[in-house]
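Lecture 7 notes: from sequence to structure.
We start with the chain below.
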Amino acid sequence: MPRTVTVTGTLAADEEVTASFKIAGRVSEISVDLGTNVRKGQLLARLDPTDSRHRVEQAEAALRQVRAGLGIRSDSADERVDPEKTGQVREARAVLDEARASRNRTAELLDKGFISKAEYDSSVSRLQVAEGRHQAAVDDIMNRLEILAERRSALSLARQQLADTELRAPIDGSVRERQASVGVYLAEGAPVVGLVRIHPLRLRVAVPEREASSIRAGQTVRIRTEGDTAERSGRVVRISPSILEQNRTLAVEAELPNRDGRLRPGTFAKAEIEVAAARPTVLVPASAIVTFAGIEKVVGVKAGKATETRVRTGRRSGDRIEILEGLSAGDQVVVEPGTLAGGQPVTLKP
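Predicted structure tokens for the same chain:
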């Protein structure tokens, strides 16, 4: 038999999730109930999408308005705009070029003495006004481009909120709890459905400090639960780095396959962690062990009289019990001693 550490623990779900809506709204549909198996991405519930659809339409209209102001065609997917090629800026550029040419002409006429200084100053002022209007037109286009980006973001947000009216399963699992009903108005983040993943399961046990040094990841774990006669096997996968001071135990988690779903989270389990390879051991029938006042013993026969031998027992294997101390292989014991006591005469019959 292999050397094992016997512990008790509790089965826990591999993952537990409470699914909730990211937005507030009235529940229009719930497609799952207690015990329903779901796949990741499966629809769990839906909110009334009417308000969210209106927000999307409003955001689309606002985006179209800005695009039209920038001269972007409604069927164009390219929203890149060169400010200098827009009508508003081209008009301001033409006025600026005309004002600059006029200033240059008046400067020549002033040098030749054909016009007064006041007329030249007037042309300079018109040029400065044209430059300001051209810059204002460029700034206005740049501002509209920023508004265009804002409208795109608003539309993306509105579409995301519309998508968020559908609640989908974040994991594969089963419905542990349904916490909402159709017609109820839910606040943002209110719980709707509790989900658990039951394959694989986690076995959480506390190993006594004296046995902690022998526990390693990957060791085989065998468990039995109340109401299930089958023995299940798993592996140690997680070990706490420290001993709990309160009870001097080491927290250990094992992983158990549960494809048939017969094991349930929260179940109490008795487990054996195999910490050493199989080796020969002494076994006796369980019925041969006599226990009195906490002392375990077996009854043998020597020279026609019953003899009592104190023993220390270990693990159980079917209807046999391991003997750690007190007997050697080949020793004879009475299988069913009943009230037989040491010193009583015994006759062996073939």
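Points to note: Residues 2-14+198-278 form a domain with the Elongation Factor Tu (Ef-tu); domain 3 fold (CATH 2.40.30.170). Helices lie at 50-69, 87-112, 117-163, 209-212.
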